[in-house]
Amino acid sequence: MAQSQQPSDKSYVIAVCLSAIFGVVGIQHFYMGRYLEASLDLGMFILSLYFFFTGQIGYALVVLAIDGVHTFVVTIMLLTGSFRDGYGNLICYPGQKLKQGDLA
Description:
This protein is mainly α. It is built from 4 helices and no strands. The chain starts with 11 loop residues before the first helix and ends in a 25-residue tail after the last helix.
């Protein structure tokens, strides 16, 4: 699927808040329509809980750290207005100006 060069209809504020608060669970990806990425985030979170409750703390920390780094990168991309929703549209921060080449 080709990426659209239009702004997303998803709320920037909601996406950033979900990413900052529930990022390791992947809730923000479900909101943005990125279901594969959301499932991977949720799966990693559940796997880290499994490792934690079965006493494998080292594995839990590794999986949670990987998920945390991914969440940090996604949150930074959202804050800078360079992240796309599930349809390939940019999730723009308020007042973000798209370049003429970015508009269809």
